[in-house]
Predict the structure of 3-ketodihydrosphingosine reductase.
Amino acid sequence: MLLLAAAFLVAFELLLYMVSPLISPKPLALPGAHVVVTGGSSGIGKCIAIECYKQGAFITLVARNEDKLLQAKKEIEKHSINDKQVVLCISVDVSQDYNQVENVIKQAQEKLGPVDMLVNCAGMSVAGKFEDLEVSTFERLMNLNYLGSVYPSRAVITTMKERRVGRIVFVSSQAGQLGLFGFTAYSSSKFALRGLAEALQMEVKPYNVYVTVAYPPDTDTPGFAEENKTKPLETRLISETTSICKPEQVAKQIVKDAIQGNFNSSVGSDGYMLSSLTCGMAPVTSITEGLQQVVTMGLFRTIALFYLGSFDSIIRRCMMQKARSETADKTA
Ligand SMILES: NC(=O)c1ccc[n+]([C@@H]2O[C@H](COP(=O)([O-])OP(=O)(O)OC[C@H]3O[C@@H](n4cnc5c(N)ncnc54)[C@H](OP(=O)(O)O)[C@@H]3O)[C@@H](O)[C@H]2O)c1
Ligand SMILES: *[C@@H]1O[C@H](CO)[C@@H](O)[C@H](O)[C@H]1NC(C)=O
Ligand SMILES: *[C@@H]1O[C@H](CO)[C@@H](O)[C@H](O)[C@H]1NC(C)=O
């Protein structure tokens, strides 16, 4: 009898142990909250700012170009839901100097109060074959996409932990879940965010601070149009196997996941598949999420093999085409 009771107790403990990481965090209330969006003057960042503003948040936009910042501020202010709301603009390069970033975050906190949510969205992409990319491009992308997310996060984390409130969002990319032709510089800078986010989440969870990594697909923004100009043919053909998303849709999903404290945020069926495939040892925030990952892993890996095969054949076709046009050039 005693043995049975003990066995029950052990089983119960084990169950608690397994379920405890699955307890969902309390959603963050956006009305009146202070949301800082780096890269908030354009594209996905601007749409995230609008989405938060529509839900009653106070916004700080961080980017370099002052004209673009003011333009975005005007656009965002059209969506106000009460006359207390403020959009603050701060011009700074997030990738250069930590002290500078810390100072502007302090200024923003003096004006609009402690930061409740930080969205690290400033970033850029340059595509090209490994040997064609300048070495300085690797440095620039790592500085902006990785360190440009470390600096603002480092500047807000202490206050968030003290207040036991906070959300930090890292905007990675689907190219931060798998490496693709042409993205040796970009993918690595976006993969880095995942490592940062996993380690940070483990540190700050006991303080009720939650981290979200977003993996947007190709999204119709000024930044995407810029990147498109640098893509090798292979990269363009591979990215054309999926459709292009609206920044409003991506922003909506990111804000929703950040409020809920979900570790992953993705859009569309490709996004769903990639997130399940690459979940690794990432934290889970609900039982259904964990179960979905366990159940879908094998199936998605099988589908992924077909994708990889089709990418290989695109690359082979491009090589053959180039070889043919070269011999045609020689004979002409
Ligand atoms: N669009 C896509 O297809 C796609 C897909 C996956 C992931 N993403 C990621 O999503 C994020 C936003 O992309 P997007 O396409 O919306 O970009 P975007 O339209 O080019 O906007 C980039 C924003 O970042 C700011 N910024 C750039 N460099 C900065 C710096 N050094 N310091 C401070 N601010 C800086 C820009 O303003 P200033 O130039 O004035 O500084 C602008 O506000 C990026 O991290 C990108 O890698 C985009
Ligand atoms: C990308 O650039 C190519 C030309 O290099 C063009 O044909 C295509 O329409 C562009 N796509 C987008 C979405 O801008
Ligand atoms: C990732 O997040 C999306 C919503 O952004 C959700 O639909 C999906 O189930 C999540 N995937 C995993 C593997 O957690």
Observations:
- The pocket of 2-acetamido-2-deoxy-beta-D-glucopyranose (ligand 3) is lined by residues 253, 257, 264-266, 272, 275-276, 279, 289, 292-293 (CB under 6 Å).
